[in-house]
Amino acid sequence: MRTLLLPLLTVSVAAIAFAADPGNSLVTNGDFESGAKDWSVGKGVTIEEDGGNHFLRIQSSEPNTQVQSHRKIKIPGGTQKLKVSFRVRYENIVSGAQNWHNGSLVMHLKDSTGAIVKPAPRPFSFKGKSDGWVEKELEIDVPEGAVELELLPALFMVEQGTLEFDDFVIIPD
To answer: Between 105 and which of 2, 83, 124, 166 could a Cys-Cys bridge form, CB atoms 3.0 to 4.6 Å apart?
Structure first.
């Protein structure tokens, strides 16, 4: 049993290290340690610091409005899959008039003209309050013609809430 367990443990640790290694990531400044560099910020979107760690904060100050950041990531030619991981923390997200008016991370795959390529990756949805930072990950199939991944972290038409992101890593496979 021991001889079987050690190789499995080694493979699992190696897989975790690869997925979390920002050195392999297509996302520059995915940890926000360089401030807003490469990320859009505006009303309700800031880079915050807590104990030396920087992160993106999206905060709704008016009900039923959209507050979002935006980031475009180039996909290397020949990429068939993308492994996306990030950390998220959220508090007091109260949905708006529709059930899908919530905190979210929407991702679009786009072609060289900027048109959306289907199928779209499933969005992440956030309501209520998280128990601290939560790690999320997703593997995306890259359809033919897709050259860019667009990230849209947002509070979409919520009554109120705060949504925070950190440590975006996107690995081509």
So the answer is: 124
